[in-house]
Amino acid sequence: MRILLVDDHDDIRDIYEIFLTSYFKCDIIQADSVVTAATEILKNTKNIDIIVSDYHMPEANGGVLYTYVKKYLPETPFILFSSNIGIIETDVVFKNFFKDNPYNSVISKPCPADEFAYIVGNIYQESNSCLLKRIYPRKHDRYNMVVDASIKFTANEQTKYTKVMNLSNGGMFVRLDDQFPKPNSFVEYNLLSGNLNQPHGRGIIRWVRDKKANFLLTGCGVEFIQ
């Protein structure tokens, strides 16, 4: 597996290269700018399997790089790796991000090593129909991963960018720290990962946990509806 990692911070590139190479055998190519990635590496390097890119960088941002990738390498999965995941809905370049390539994804920065490796590894597995050591295909109802999401609470028309987990075909857990909704109210969700079965839809809040209990996080349980 060959991965292009684009970020203007040397330490971030180095750390996540260590993460990936410790989980599976892969070749990491680093780029410190969009210009380097597009004009030097992508034009002259064959067989890049996945592109992981920050958004906010000098000279040009990750949206500019994605425009290049969409035009010249449309079959290559693109992972937007940014501390501002809301950019996926505000930059028009990403309007059809998940439709452009079903393996395109968004990961919020920073990201735990195992979660980062899990997402990258599974995208590679699913887009190449192969198996990697220590990374397993999704054969079960529940997804063993954390996904960035935008959740719109229809009761007050408020949208929050947060993380969801315990994803299944029937529902999910939405992580919240405050402004907890009421049970039986509705939400509209947008899961910011393209390689999921139900990335967009509506749901109903079945329960709310507004205080931490033991090691359980605060948030709400959402049941998917049509």
Structural topology:
Elements: E1 2-6, H1 10-23, E2 27-31, H2 34-44, E3 50-53, H3 62-72, E4 78-82, H4 87-90, H5 97-100, E5 105-108, H6 113-128, E6 147-153, E7 158-165, E8 171-175, E9 186-191, E10 200-209, E11 219-225
Parallel strand pairs: 1-2, 1-3, 3-4, 4-5
Antiparallel strand pairs: 6-7, 6-9, 7-8, 8-11, 9-10, 10-11
Helix pairs in contact: 1-6, 2-3
Verbal overview:
The chain contains six helices and eleven strands. With 226 residues, the chain is α/β, with parallel strands linked by helices. It has two domains: 2-128, Rossmann fold, CATH 3.40.50; 147-225, Beta Barrel (Thrombin, subunit H), CATH 2.40.10. The strands form two sheets. The chain has a six-stranded antiparallel beta barrel with strand order 6-7-8-11-10-9. A hairpin with a 4-residue loop joins strand 6 and strand 7. Helix 1 (10-23) crosses helix 6. The chain is elongated, with a radius of gyration of 18 Å. Residues 135-142 have low confidence and may be disordered.
How would you sum up this structure in a few lines?
By secondary structure, this protein is of the alpha/beta class. It has helices at residues 10-23, 34-44, 62-72, 87-90, 97-100, 113-128; strands spanning 2-6, 27-31, 50-53, 78-82, 105-108, 147-153, 158-165, 171-175, 186-191, 200-209, 219-225. The chain is 27% helix and 29% strand.
The secondary-structure class comes to alpha/beta
CATH architectural group of the largest domain: 3-Layer(aba) Sandwich
Give the low-confidence spans. Answer: 135-142
What assembly state would you assign to the polypeptide chains in this entry?
Answer: single chain
| Global outline | elongated
Average per-residue pLDDT, rounded, comes to 85
Tell me the radius of gyration.
18 Å
Q: CATH homologous superfamily of the largest domain - what is it?
A: Response regulator
CATH topology heading of the largest domain:
Rossmann fold
Q: Mind describing the biggest β-sheet? A: 6 strands, antiparallel, barrel
| CATH first level of the largest domain | Alpha Beta
Question: Helical element count?
Answer: 6
Note the run of SSEs as H and E: EHEHEHEHHEHEEEEEE
Q: Give the total of beta strands.
A: 11
Spatial order of the strands forming the largest sheet:
6-7-8-11-10-9
User: How many domains, as an integer?
Assistant: 2
Distance between the termini: 38 Å
- Give the strand content: 25-35%
